[in-house]
Design goal:
Domain Methionyl/Leucyl tRNA synthetase: 6-366
CATH architecture of the largest domain: 3-Layer(aba) Sandwich
Largest sheet: 6 strands, parallel
Number of domains: 2
Helix content: 40-55%
Structural class: alpha/beta
CATH topology of the largest domain: Rossmann fold
CATH superfamily of the largest domain: HUPs
Shape: elongated
Subunit structure: Monomer.
Function: Is required not only for elongation of protein synthesis but also for the initiation of all mRNA translation through initiator tRNA(fMet) aminoacylation.
Enzyme class: ligase
Mean pLDDT: 96
Bound molecules: ligand ME8
GO molecular function: ATP binding; methionine-tRNA ligase activity
């Protein structure tokens, strides 16, 4: 069996509807998961909603409904977003599921059995918006005497009886982990930030709450619910069958397994400090990598409900197209850096790359075949050096450059390579001028068209993880067999049998109609 590959997004707080930042994370993760499947890997891709905690309880109370009713409603919007954006997750987890409560209680008991939990009194600062405890030394002064967390959210003084996790015991073990697995935290900026934090010393972590009851019950401690991050992080194990399904665990959460968490930069501390410490304590395998992507800004500004600049991903998809939005987000933003979006930037990228560079190339070539060869696929009559040069370049791009970039979680680098190959095809068609060859050398015209047809199909296969629906529609139209649409079968060997069959190529419809801006876009 092929080597398992586990990849997850963060699970989102369903205290409101999904925004473009949520869409960005799940689209990037989807592209990577699709790529790994095309490499023949046994992929498990999980996403979902993080439904417990004070933030959910307070939002529900403000709306006069039960937290579960809020979670039911909002979780539905996250699911609907994933459907709309063509997300290929294998599991959508909700932390209110019974199986997840069992998994959270099991990891709690394992940490307790290891001697890492004790009961005490918590006195300190808490941010409901971040669902996070902070040390006094991390805080800054906001307006009106309000203290602010490093994320800029207000904190409140909290005093209550609480279970604690001996995080202070894990400082050396965590530093040893970062040292022996330098890629555990990526990108480097995030790694350095975490190194500094852990080197600065770790306090024990308050991991239960008594002031509200919306959460996973602490086993054997009436009145305590787990701190939301304990149960939230455990979602990754629940999806992998913990604690009862040993076979599933061995497959997707094994020692040395290929396990990647894709999350935003604001929650790296939870994933790169608390999570490995919990797992070490419970004597469970660790993930291979935690990747903290950047934030998406609206025209360079932080999105916020009060400013009213929070973009709805469904609206953007309706207006510009799902694949246009996916392509924009993955090509525009270097994964790991912050990025900006605006209507102009989406329109510009889509029209120039998808429309002009790739769509027109396919359109010109396929219409030419449909019209001049009555749809019969052209035969190859020997190759010129120009043909081999184009094939070599595409081969390098689709077999080496793109897979290397995707495996390295760098979709924008993969797309750059892809675009370079599309430009090379455009130069080839202009230089070879099949419209002239039609009169002067019809055999050479056929070879040129066959070369382009193969190149276009290879580029369509290679870009499937990024724009799955459009690329598949093009491959369907071109008659490329489904079993050839993988990175390993991307060579041209499928072409001759297809050209010799009675397949007739119809005139294509434009794949990426030109997008226009409106006055409202400013
Ligand atoms: O943090 N741009 O949930 P969440 C890019 N429940 N990514 C963004 C973003 C933006 N503007 N805003 C948020 C939580 N994100 C926890 C996670 S995991 C065990 C629990 C990212 O709904 C954010 O960084 O606030 C996170 O990775 C994800 O969206 C969900 O954020």
């Amino acid at each position: 069996m092929s080597k398992p590959y586990t990849i997850t997004t963060a699970i989102s707080y369903p205290n409101g509807r999904p925004h473009i930042g949520h869409a960005y994370e799940v689209i990037a993760t989807d592209a990577i998961a699709r790529f790994q499947r095309m490499m023949g890997r046994d992929v498990f891709f999980q996403t979902g909603t993080d439904e417990h905690g004070l933030k959910m309880a307070q939002t529900a109370r403000n709306r006069g409904i039960e937290p579960l009713a809020l979670a039911d409603e909002m979780s539905g919007y996250f699911r609907a977003m994933n459907d709309r954006l063509n997300i290929s997750h294998d599991r959508f987890i909700r932390t209110s599921e019974a199986a997840h409560h069992s998994a959270s209680q099991a990891i709690w008991q394992a940490m307790e059995a290891n001697g890492d939990l004790y009961l005490d009194r918590y006195e300190g600062w808490y941010s409901v918006r971040d669902e996070a405890f902070y040390d006094e030394k991390e805080l800054t002064d906001g307006e009106g005497g309000v203290k602010l967390s490093p994320q800029g959210t207000p904190v409140e003084w909290t005093v209550e009886e609480s279970w604690f996790f001996r995080l202070s015991n894990y400082q050396d073990k965590l530093l040893a982990l970062y040292e022996s697995q330098p890629d555990f935290i990526r990108p480097d900026s995030r790694r350095n930030e975490i190194l500094r934090f852990v080197e600065g010393g770790l306090s024990d972590l308050s991991i239960s709450r008594t002031s509200f009851d919306w959460g996973v019950k602490v086993p054997g401690a009436d009145g305590h619910v787990m701190y939301v991050w304990v149960d939230a992080l455990t979602n990754y194990l629940t999806g992998c069958g913990y604690p009862d399904d040993a076979d599933r665990m061995a497959r997707y959460w094994a020692e040395g397994g290929d396990i990647t968490h894709i999350i935003g930069k604001d929650i790296v501390r939870f994933h790169a400090v608390y999570w490995p410490a919990f797992l070490m304590s419970a004597k469970l395998p660790l993930p291979k990598q935690v990747f903290g992507h950047g934030f998406l800004l609206n025209r360079g500004e932080k999105m916020s409900k009060s400013v009213g600049n929070v973009a709805d991903p469904i609206e953007l998809a309706d207006r510009f197209g799902v694949d246009q939005l996916r392509y924009f987000l993955l090509s525009e933003v270097t994964f790991g850096n912050d990025g900006s979006y605006s209507a102009e930037a989406i329109v510009q990228r889509s029209n120039s790359d998808l429309g002009n560079a790739f769509g027109n190339l396919a359109q010109r070539t396929l219409s030419f075949i449909a019209k001049n060869l009555e749809g019969y696929l052209p035969a190859i009559h020997g190759h010129d050096p120009a043909d081999s040069e184009l094939f070599d370049l595409i081969d390098r791009v689709v077999r080496t450059d793109m897979p290397a970039a995707m495996a390295d979680l760098a979709p924008s680098v993969a797309i750059d390579a892809w675009l370079r190959a599309a430009f090379a095809c455009n130069q080839y068609i202009d230089a070879q001028a099949p419209w002239t060859l039609r009169k002067t050398d019809p055999q050479r015209m056929e070879t040129v068209l066959a070369t382009l047809y193969i190149a276009i199909a290879q580029l369509a296969v290679a870009v499937l993880p990024v724009i799955p629906a459009s690329a598949a529609a093009l491959l369907d139209h071109m008659g490329v067999p489904v079993d050839k649409r993988t990175y390993s079968a991307i060579g041209d060997h499928w072409y001759s049998p297809l050209a010799e069959s009675d397949f007739i190529l119809a005139a294509p419809k434009p794949l990426f109609p030109r997008l226009e801006l409106t006055e409202a876009d400013g």
